[in-house]
Specification:
Order of helices and strands: EHEHEEEHHEHHEHHHHH
Radius of gyration: 21 Å
Shape: globular
Strand order of the largest sheet: 2-1-3-6-7
Structural class: alpha/beta
Strand content: 5-15%
Number of helices: 11
């Protein structure tokens, strides 16, 4: 294969509780594979992490850059050393800063159209992306629009969407067939088999390579182990009662090492620093060393 490194970007379809397509690439390829995906992240955050990755790694034509774009109703803000990424803004956890008051004051579909379109178009103008994929359809107005265009606001929003779509790359939907996991737990992410099929059908087929038999074996081993553990947790008296998400999450996390997988945290800009004190050595902070010392200490306390 002509590529020397692989850089992957996305949300929970890229970095999740069980191994994803990125973990499969890392296991199967004999080159460096970095996972910059983060659960709940939107497309503005994805673009931001792509730029951070490029600043650190200096993309070349020998790098394989793959992005799995996220859904559009997400809010990405970097606050106190971490992304506040909670997915769909209309389905937020109780501790989210994006509450109903925030939505009433700050959310508008036109703004989502502009910021998501700008992120996707900008990324493709800046970087030589091998593959653009998405967790939701986004190649036509019918894929993206909200409403039927019956009000003037909706008509304007549709025109705005069409304006940006003229400069969109071809973005292929991630295929997510029904999984046995869905019958057992409150879960709708693609399982490891779907991720394996994605690698083979959308990446390896274009690279002209095949997956190692040992990788195929480890993929099936993890899937079987997860299903076995979930079945043990099901209520034998009520098969219609699904396992809670947090329980499923803990089970999925516990099976990595025992099935020949290694869980690696997502890459971020600060992971390349030896420690937080190194931030003070950055030239653009040197003139504000006293203030930065306070910020660094605060970051170390609150963002381990």
């Amino acid at each position: 294969m002509e590529y020397k490194r692989v850089f992957c970007f996305g949300c929970s379809f890229t970095n999740y509780e069980w191994p994803t397509w990125v973990d499969i690439l890392r296991k199967d390829l004999d080159i460096q594979v970095q996972n910059w995906g983060l659960q709940g992240l939107g497309n503005v955050g994805i673009l931001s992490k792509m730029i951070q990755c490029d600043i650190i790694n200096k993309f070349t034509n020998e790098d394989l850059v793959i992005v799995l774009w996220s859904s559009w109703t997400r809010e990405d803000r970097y606050i106190e050393g971490k992304w506040t990424s909670h997915g769909n803004i209309f389905a937020q956890p109780d501790d989210s800063p994006y509450d109903n008051d925030f939505i009433k004051k700050h959310w508008d579909w036109s703004n989502d159209i502009i910021k998501n379109s700008t992120a996707i178009i900008s990324a493709n103008k800046m970087f030589n992306i091998f593959g653009n994929f998405s967790i939701t359809p986004m190649n036509s107005l019918d894929d993206i629009k909200i409403g039927d265009g019956e009000t003037q606001k909706e008509i304007n929003e549709n025109k705005l969407t069409e304006f940006y779509l003229e400069d969109f790359p071809n973005i292929k939907l991630f295929n997510k067939p029904k999984s046995k996991i869905y019958d057992l737990a409150w879960e709708n992410h693609p399982d490891i088999i779907a991720h394996s099929n994605f690698v083979k059908d959308e990446i390896y087929s274009k690279l002209g390579i095949v997956m190692k038999p040992t990788t195929e074996k480890d993929i099936q081993s993890y899937q079987d182990a997860l299903l076995d553990e979930l079945i043990k947790k099901t209520d034998s008296t009520d098969r219609t009662k699904k396992i809670e998400y947090l329980i499923m999450q803990d089970i999925a996390k516990s099976l990595w090492e025992s099935n020949n997988w290694k869980k690696i945290d997502e890459h971020d800009w600060w992971r390349n620093l030896k420690n937080w004190e190194d931030l003070a050595k950055k030239s653009f902070w040197s003139k504000k060393s006293k203030d930065m010392t306070k910020i660094i200490k605060k970051s170390r306390r609150e963002d381990p």
